[in-house]
Specification:
Blueprint: H1 5-11, E1 17-23, E2 31-41, E3 45-50, E4 54-59, E5 63-68
Antiparallel strand pairs: 1-2, 1-5, 2-3, 3-4
């Protein structure tokens, strides 16, 4: 069995592109995702910089899944 999602986030280099699923209490679905660059890390939290929401601070105890993702595709020419 591999590392836990929280351990993965605690050990990845800053600047890695990730998708993180984490629990939220105020949502009827109970979880949401953050897709972006891992930009900061504290003992209990990590920060993912997303295009739509800016910097999202996530409590590691709320993380249910995390993985690295490839860079976004290059913009298509008009």
């Amino acid at each position: 069995m591999g590392p836990t999602p929280a351990h993965l986030l605690a050990t990845l280099p800053l600047g890695t592109r990730v998708v993180v699923r984490y629990r939220i209490e105020d949502d009827v679905h109970g979880a949401t995702d953050a897709l972006g660059e891992l930009v900061a890390r504290q003992p209990d939290t990590c920060t993912v910089r997303t295009r739509s929401s800016g910097d999202v601070v996530i409590t590691l105890a709320d993380v249910t899944a995390a993985r690295t993702v490839p860079p976004p595709p290059a913009p298509r020419p008009r």
